[in-house]
């Protein structure tokens, strides 16, 4: 009887030890879960304050760097574009100035050449008439020249002076028609008139023809008019 009771006690102790061990194991496992859950709750609680979310500082810095790079790139692009536009505008302005300068120089050169043409042509023409008169005067002074030859020389001198006078009158009358300058060349019956004008209107041509026809007793068909 005592032996049976003793065995029951031993079994009871062993069972109690097993129960205690299982309880401790269960408590330890639940304790770990509780700590982990608490940590997760704290992390969630702190991360969600004010609907804000925690962001990795490196990511924020990288984002800011990327944003600054984009802004800097855009600013650089705008600056480069503005510089390029300024360079293009400056280049166009320089080209326009150069073109205007070239045009002005061309116009000035043309005007200068035209003025020189009229002045030099008149000088050549008047020099020719002066030399002709001088030649005839030498004939008159030469004692060895026959009297009839001297009479011809006198007639030629008169004709040349008359011609010069008519030319001067016609050129002055042509100026009154709004033409700044002109020159008249006479070759026997043919009369050439060169006027300083970019273009001639039909009424101006008719006025010049009337002047030459009246003052020089010339036929319309022998009058040739051109502009320069």
Strand arrangement across the biggest beta sheet: 1-2-3
Number of helices: 4
Task: Spell the H/E element sequence.
Answer: HHHEEHE
> Rg, please?
60 Å
Name the shape in a single word.
rod-shaped
Distance between the termini: 160 Å
Helix content: over 70%
Task: Characterise the protein shown here.
The chain has four helices and three strands. By secondary structure, the protein is mainly alpha-helical. Helix 3 (147-175) runs antiparallel to helix 4. The chain is rod-shaped and about 190 Å long. The protein starts with a helix and ends with a strand.
Short note summarizing the structure:
By secondary structure, the protein is mainly α. Helices cover 77% and strands 7% of the residues. A three-stranded mixed beta sheet has the order 1-2-3.
